[in-house]
Amino acid sequence: MQLPRFARIPRHIGVIPDGNRRWAVQHGLPKEAGYRYGIDPGFELYNLCKKLGVEELTLYGFTQDNTKRPAVQTRAFQAACVKAVEILTRMDAQLLVVGNSESKLFPPELLPYRTRQKFGAGSIKINFLVNYGWAWDLEYGIKRQAEHGGNLIDNIASRDISRLDLIIRWGGRRRLSGFLPVQSIYADFYVVDAYWPDFSPQHLFDALSWYQT
């Protein structure tokens, strides 16, 4: 694929891959089936960002609020996150998983990735938010600050994730859903109306064209 040329590429892009359940219903599938179809789009986006020179990419796996959904859906997005990480370990990335790992809802398979791990050349940082909650992130920082001192920002659970330049949300919803409140404070926010499993490279290209203006 011939990639478009952009005058300005965001250093760090955040991704909210929404619409999996609505996509499944639209295709006559049970809601939980949608998460399985969200894995391949993530790697298509990863490959595009790597080729374009994006330095850091953060993706929402699932939030603590998501775990209030029916158990069959919770198991489905947990399994999708584990599968995505398993694939990524055979690729080129510096992977960090951030989320409440003290909860039984955090997949135990992902525990080794709570500190950043390098795979291949490690040419792009990948942050994966799994069982993440904005309040949990900040409360973690308050507790750690009381023990270690320093300022709050240097103590939050997501402190190793840098400031976001651009956040892209699929699925048409116009909200951040608690996505990294500290790092997103100055980010531009672009919404794609298509559901995440219907990802197209053009969605990213349109977002980057908009970002330049």
Tell me about this structure.
The chain is globular. It has 213 residues and is α/β, with parallel strands linked by helices. The protein has a 7-stranded mixed sheet with strand order 4-3-5-2-1-6-7, sandwiched between helices. The protein starts with 11 loop residues before the first strand and ends with a helix. The chain is built from 5 helices and 7 strands.
Give me a quick take on this structure.
This protein has 213 residues and is of the alpha/beta class.
- Assembly classification: single chain
Radius of gyration: 17 Å
Q: Which ranges are low-confidence, i.e. pLDDT below 50, for 5 or more consecutive residues? A: none
The total strand number stands at 7
Task: Please give the share of residues in helix.
Answer: 25-40%
Mean pLDDT: 97
Pattern of helices and strands: EHHEHEEEHEEH
Q: Helical segment tally? A: 5
Q: Strand order, biggest sheet?
A: 4-3-5-2-1-6-7
Q: Give the N-terminus to C-terminus distance in angstroms.
A: 24 Å
Which class best fits the helix and strand makeup? alpha/beta
Overall, the morphology is globular
Biggest sheet descriptor: 7 strands, mixed
Fraction in beta strands:
15-25%
Topology readout:
Layout: E1 12-17, H1 20-26, H2 39-52, E2 56-63, H3 71-88, E3 93-98, E4 117-119, E5 125-132, H4 134-148, E6 166-170, E7 188-192, H5 201-212
Parallel strand pairs: 1-2, 1-6, 2-5, 3-5, 6-7
Antiparallel strand pairs: 3-4
Keywords:
213 residues, alpha/beta, seven-stranded mixed β-sheet, 5 helices, 31% helix, 19% strand, globular
